[in-house]
Every structure is written in C-alpha cells, then in structure tokens.
Design brief:
The complex is a heterodimer of chains A (99) and B (743). Chain A is an alpha+beta fold and 99 residues long. Chain A is built from four helices and three strands, in the order αβααβαβ. Chain A has a two-stranded antiparallel sheet with strand order 2-3. Chain B is built from 31 helices and ten strands. The chains are: A alpha+beta (99), B alpha/beta (743).
Chain lengths: 99, 743
C-alpha cells in the first residue's frame, strides 16, 4: 500500500488534491494523509505546511517575518495562508556554478 | 503470554491515555478527572503533561494524558515523550482513544500500542458523530481482531465512561497477549530467532515486550538499540538483529522498516474494511462536490479568472466614492486648516508651507487616498481566503506553473509575491532544488505586488473609467503570462528543468467567512500600508520636495524654482528621452518611475508632487471650521450613498449618474501631460505606463533580497532583464494601442 501511494504521487501529471488521490487509491483521505506523512518522514516527500513556508526565509526573529511593506518590521501582512501539500523530493542536481 | 504485574507500591492503578490528536482524548481526560488534574511539562521537554486522579468502583486511578500522536515511532517530540513514558513508567494499563469517524488512521497507533503488551482498552469515541455520518462499526469483530476490549463512548456527553473504567480495572488484572498482526513468513522467522535471544536475558524480557522489541530492532530503531546497549544481552542481541536485517533486506529487496510499515497498513486496511460499514451519508462531502467543478482541469482556470475579475470589480467600483471623499477632505478642509495654522504662526508664505502642502500633503496624501482601494482589495481577498477558495486558486494556478517545469513548492513564493515581493523572494529559500529556487526568485517580481495597485487604479480611472476592473485584472494576468513566458525562455536556456514531480494538496473544506476574520485581515494589512505611508513614503516625499526645491542652474532660488529647472526635474528629464517611444516621455513620468524604485506607492506620490496639483487646493475657498466639518460629513454621507449605488453595478446594473474621477486635479494634469507626450494617444500611453510599472523592478528592498538569496549575478540579470522586458512590453502596448486600437 505504501509503495502504491508513493508511485501514484510520482506518476501524477501535475498537482492532484488529496481527495482525488484517495479516490484513485480507494483510501480514506485521512488514512492517505498518514501514509504521505510516513513518506515525508522517510524523506521521499516534502511537506509544505501553510504559513511557515512562506515566512521561513524572512524570519528576523521567531514568529516575525521581514517584509518590504511592513515598515514597523513586526510581521509581514501578506503571508499567504496556503494549504498543506506534499511534493516529491528531488535532490539538488543543479548546484553547479550558478552563483 | 506475558504476565503483567500490578503496581505494588500502592493500590493506585496507573493508566496512560493515548490517542491521535483530536480523537477526544482531552475530553475523556476531563470527564474522568474533573477538576482533579495537574498541568505541567514533561521533564526536560516543552510538551505539556496532564495528570489527574480519580476513584470509581472503589478503585483509585492515576491517569496520565499522553501527547496526541499518530504513531510511536519516536520521530517527533510528542512521540518520543509518549513512548518513553510507556517504556519507562510501565503504566498498569492504557486507554487507547480512537475517533470512530476516522478509525483506520487511528488504528495505526493502536496497533503499535498493543505491541507493547500492556493491558489495553480501546475507547471508541465520537460514536454519535460516526452515526450521523452513517458509519456502522462492528465492535465485537474489532475487539476480537485486536484481542482487547473495545468500548463505544461519547466523551463529550460523558457516555461510556463507567464502562471504560470498569474495562481498564478488569484488563489490568489479566495477562496480556501480543497483537495478532502477522508480518509475513520472512519477518516472522527473523522475529522468532531474535525472541530466542531475548528470552535468554531476564533483564531485557522483563523490561520490554519481547515481540515489540524484536520488531523495533528489525525496523532499525536507533533509540531502542541505544537503550539495549548497556543491558546484559545487548551485545549479543544487537549484532544478531543487524544480521537479520541484512538478510531480510537482501531477501525482500527493500528496507525492512518500510516492509513492516506496509504490512501494518495493509493489515489495518483489511481490518477496517471488515468492521466499518459506510452508509449513504458517508459519501462525497459538499466541499468535494464543489471542488469537482472548481478544480476541474478545463473549468478551474476560467473560474479562477472570473473570481479575480470580481475581486477587481469590487476593488475599483466600491472604493471609488471613498477615494473621492478622502481626496476632497485632504485637498479641501485639511489643507485649509494647515494653511490657517501656518499663517497664524507666521509661516504662511514660506518654504515650510510649501513643504507641508506641496510635499507632505500632496505626496503622502496622494497615496493615502488609495487606502479605500486597498481595503476593498483586502476585503475581497480575505473573503476568498476565509471561504477556502484561495487554496483552490493556488491549486489551479499550480497547473500553469507546471508547464514551465516548476516544481510544486514554487507556487507558495509566487502566491506571496502578489502581496509583497520581498517575503516572496525569501520564501524561495525553502525550495530544496537550486534550479527551482533561482527560477522562482526570478519570476516572483512579475507577480504584481499590492504596492502597484494605487498606480493601476489611478491610471485606469483616468484613461479607462468604464473598464477599470478589467484593465487591472488584465495587468495582473499579464504579469503571470510574462512570468510563464520568461520561465519557458529560462527553461530552454539558462535553467533547464527535469520533469516536474507530483504534488498532493490537501484542500481545506469550504466555510462561510466570518466578519471578525475578514475584519482582522483587512486591519492588519491596511495598518501595514499606513505604517509604510507614515515612514518610507513620507521620507521619500520630503526628499523629493527638497530635490524639486533646489534649482539646478542659475534660474530661481531655493523653494522658488520651476520644477522642471530643479535638481529633480533635470535629473528626471534624462529619463524622458528613453521613455519617449513609450508615449510618456516627460520628466514627471521619468521622475515618478525612478522614485518608484524606493517603493511602488511612491510613483503616485511623486506624480502628485511633480504635477503640482495641490497648488490650487481650494485656496480661494474660505470656509469656517464648522463649514469645513459640515462639508466632511456631507461628503461622507454622499460616499455611503454612492457605494450603495455601486453595489448593483457589480452585476451589471448601473445606478450611478456619472463616472466621477479619482483624484480629479491630478487626473486632469496626467491626462493633459500624456496627451501631449504621446501625440494625442493618451490612453495608449497610460496603458503603456501601467505595463511598465507592472514589469520593471519592484523596489530596492526586492533587489536587496534577491542579491541575498540568489547572488549578485542573478540579481543583475533580474534587474536588467526586468527593465528590458518592461520597456519592450510598454513599447509594444503603446504602438499597438496607436496603430490598432486608435487609443
């Protein structure tokens, strides 16, 4: 079952919703979420969890995020609240002399 | 069979409460303990520990509420705390709380708990919700398969509590047996061989459940291995386990822990299939039905475009009366009051008055009049976010991003880019793939940030008053299209991509937005804009006023010089010739675009300053203070009326008498200037100006973020590339407007 889940994610053409994938695999979405979590623990999938993602790089101090439109520096108001997602982890293959 | 010893220290039965997050564990804990509970932290951890004590049926029970976890893999702090407690404290019994509406997922933890061979009772909670969903659970079959008591409960209503306590008291007196999960012949053989060694060492077998220990060692659990290393027998057991793992890996052709987890999932899936019956109510949810249309491969993007059009329609139409109102208040009563005060203190005809009126009020005020526009935008976006639709928008847009080989995670920074480019650039750091990071960072500036909106609203109202919302949405769309084009170009040149891998997105259910949620979002974002206006924009407008006050040559003196002859005018004039082919080759436009590098809102404030629209601010009018207040209130009521009239306009019913212009004085000045500079094609030039603002470098803060995150080389490529693209696109738009559209 776990392997089928990973194969289905890898074979997906473009993004799919958890509901779509659970229907395809005949699994409850919450069970599928647990299996995707399992793969993220093994490093095969990367999980994006909502606001932390968008803010991660701009952290000045814990809980605060720098932003060009926030003169006070007390947090960026434009941090997108986006849904949790799992993406297939692709190792860095492009770290040649880019800089 | 493993005999389990009751605590002999006292007559108190120690019970651990374990379960998934949101399974109703805390509710059950509260129902059991009432007020007799203690809240603290687990020793040395930041994870909350709740303990309590109660007496039922003549038995005293001390209960410990373990953190909610999905497994006992010791991957998270919560899992580690739970597992350590169960292994080290050896409670007399476990109450495993399971959500009856989500049994299959909950069973994964329960199976792991049962492997610990501690007396366990499963509390099947939320039975009422399960019944409402049409779920039927075969409890006897579940109990038989798990080999433990399963008690249905509704902790919220304190139903099933006595039965759980009775079952726990009884179970704790009985010998326990391992869960009957079969891991397959090869694994079972390896388990059996390890059990032989384990059973030889009393220190190990009395401390750990032998089968659980064998399974964990085969899974390669380093934490368990570390626990064994100091025990007698550990030196024999650990190499043996390592040997079995190697043999199994060779025989099975994959990781043992993966194989074991897969067997658990399969066993649980089959068990859930046997014991859970879904009724008619347990079919597609309303959110699923709506998503069937909203995320459809063909309909998804058109629906998203329609939603965005509605957002910009609300933004432009509903805010217009308030833009007029603020402009009227700033250029009328406020300016007159400032003049009066300055006159009273003897500064009425000095450069200080010019600085305040022509600099601060014209500049900052020129930006502040667009606060209602931004509030309307933030309102519409907050509705989309709170309703859950924005997640669907991100999903359908991600399909577009896939076309340029961008991996799924890139859409996050790109979406943030619509708010502000700076955090969006920083957000690219979370991308693990260097190529994706650079590609996404280079495309972020093409996502039109919120700071550009006042420019669009001003110019769309001047040149396309009837189609302002369409023009503004078209600009946002153009940014995305240019980003895709640039992405494709980079993909086939500097940044070749592998095939984009899969992405699974968990869409939240749709819900009705709340007034409070929307209000909070609007306020937080508007406050940030006001803070920006009160700091960076204020400083810039003052700086620009000084530059416009200093004569560049022999003509004029400080604060008494034609703007075109000032330092700012002369410097800006150097840009005019570059902009001439675009239809807006004036020093005012050049100056506004240069100052826009500080922040895009400054484009509007600089235009307001350089076109000198505040010079004629109702100075001829000499109202009393009370008359001014009356004017403010009257125009405020008028704005409310005009807003109400504009609402039917959202669905095509026009109740407005005319098309009032935003900031009329400035609008007239810009129209006249653009008409002259474009040879009579002001609308084409206005559109080209908006396209230029959309595509050229967002601001210096973005440049700095790019240098920091992508490196100097990519920063320069982005800076020069954006300027070139902006110039070419504006040129194309202007020429197309002149030749084809006759604008």
């Amino acid at each position: 079952m776990l392997r089928e889940v990973l194969q289905a994610v890898e074979a997906a053409e473009g993004p799919v919703t958890l509901t779509e994938l659970s229907r395809q695999l005949n699994l409850d979405p919450r069970v599928l979420d647990g299996m995707l979590e399992h793969w993220s623990r093994r490093g095969k999938l990367v999980v994006n969890s909502e606001t932390a993602m968008a803010c991660a790089g701009g952290l000045k101090e814990p809980g605060h995020c720098s932003c060009g439109s926030s003169a006070s520096g007390d947090g960026c108001p434009f941090i997108a609240r986006l849904p949790k997602s799992y993406a297939v982890f692709t190792p860095t293959e492009f770290d040649v002399e880019l800089r | 069979m493993t005999p389990h010893l009751l605590s002999t220290e006292s007559n108190v039965l120690s019970v651990a409460l374990a379960g998934n997050p949101n399974a109703g564990k805390s509710t059950l804990f509260n129902a059991l303990t009432g007020a007799r509970q203690h809240v603290g932290n687990w020793p040395g951890k930041t994870v909350e520990q709740k303990t309590g004590e109660f007496a039922r049926h003549g038995r005293r029970i001390a209960i410990t509420d373990l953190p909610g976890t999905y497994s006992l893999s010791a991957y998270t702090m919560e899992e580690l705390v739970s597992r350590d407690y169960l292994l080290d404290s050896r409670p007399d019994a476990i109450i495993a709380v399971a959500d009856a509406t989500n049994l299959e997922r909950n069973l994964y933890l329960i199976v792991q708990l049962l492997e610990l061979e501690l007396p366990t009772v499963v509390a099947l909670n939320m039975m009422d919700v399960a019944a409402k969903q049409g779920l039927q659970i075969d409890i006897p079959e579940l109990s038989c398969s798990l080999n433990v008591p399963v008690i249905p409960s509704i902790a919220r209503q304190e139903r099933g509590i006595d039965e759980i306590v009775a079952a726990v008291s009884h179970a704790s007196t009985l010998p326990t047996s391992a869960c009957s999960l079969d891991y397959g012949e090869a694994i079972e053989r390896a388990i059996a061989s390890l059990l032989v060694i384990i059973n030889d060492y009393i220190a190990i077998r009395e401390y750990y459940a032998p089968r659980w220990l064998a399974v964990r060692l085969l899974e390669g659990d380093v934490d368990v291995a570390a626990r064994l290393s100091g025990l007698p027998g550990g030196s024999e057991l650990l190499p043996a386990a390592g040997k079995r793992r190697a043999e199994l890996a060779a025989a099975l052709g994959e990781d043992i822990d993966l194989f074991i987890a897969d067997r658990r999932y399969t066993w649980i899936h089959n068990l859930a299939g046997r014991v859970v019956r879904a009724g008619s109510a347990h079919t597609m949810s309303n959110s699923d039905r709506i998503d069937h249309v909203m995320t459809d491969r063909r309909l998804g993007i058109p629906i998203f475009m329609l939603a965005m059009w509605l957002v910009f329609k609300i933004t432009t139409d509903l805010s217009a009366p308030w833009v007029d109102w603020i402009d009227g208040v700033l250029s009328g009563p406020i300016s007159r009051w400032v003049m009066t005060v300055l006159g009273a203190i003897g500064l009425g005809e000095t450069w200080v008055a010019s600085l305040l009126i022509d600099g601060v009020i014209a500049g900052v005020g020129g930006v502040l009049v667009f606060v209602p526009v931004l509030m309307a935008l933030y309102f519409a976006l907050a509705v989309l976010e709170d309703s859950g639709y924005m997640a669907r928008g991100a999903f359908v847009m991600d399909r577009l991003m896939n076309r340029i080989g961008l991996h799924g995670r890139s859409f996050l920074p790109l979406m943030v880019g619509f708010g502000c480019s700076v955090p969006a650039i920083y957000a690219t750091r979370t991308l693990t793939n260097e190529r994706d990071r650079i590609m996404t960072g280079l495309l972020v500036p093409f996502m039109s940030c919120g700071a550009r909106l006042p420019v669009y609203v001003l110019f769309a109202a001047i040149f396309f008053p009837r189609y302002a919302s369409v023009v503004i949405m078209g600009l946002y769309l153009l940014g995305v299209i240019i980003a895709i084009g640039v992405g494709l170009l980079l993909q086939h040149s500097l940044l070749p991509a592998a095939a984009a891998p899969g992405l699974v997105m968990e869409l939240p259910p749709y819900r009705l937005p709340t007034a409070r949620g929307i209000g909070v979002q609007m306020w937080i974002r508007t406050r940030a804009f006001l803070q920006h206006a009160a700091s960076l924009i204020l400083v810039t407008t003052i700086a620009i006023w000084f530059l416009t006050a200093i004569p560049a040559g022999a003509h004029g003196t400080f604060a008494n010089v034609a703007m075109a002859d000032s330092v700012f005018g002369r410097a800006s004039n150097a840009m005019a010739s570059v902009l001439e082919p675009l239809g807006f080759g004036t020093w005012e436009s050049g100056g506004a675009l240069i100052s826009g590098l500080v922040a895009k809102e400054v484009v509007v404030s600089t235009l307001a300053q350089t076109y000198g629209t505040s010079g004629a601010i109702d100075e001829a009018t000499s109202n009393t203070f009370l008359q001014d207040l009356g004017e403010i209130v009257t125009s405020f009521l008028g704005a409310i009326l005009d807003t109400l009239k504009a609402i039917p306009g959202l669905i095509g019913i026009n109740l407005s008498v005319g098309d009032d212009e935003a900031v009329p004085g400035l609008a007239d000045a810009i129209r006249a200037s653009f008409t002259e500079s474009s040879g009579g094609h002001a609308a084409a030039a206005g559109l080209a100006f908006m396209v230029f603002v959309l595509l050229y470098t967002p601001c210096m803060a973005t440049i700095a973020a790019m240098r920091h995150e992508l490196g100097t080389r990519w920063m320069w490529l982005s800076f020069v590339g954006q300027l070139a693209i902006a110039w070419l696109a504006a040129f194309f738009v202007f020429r197309l407007g002149v030749w084809v559209g006759g604008l």
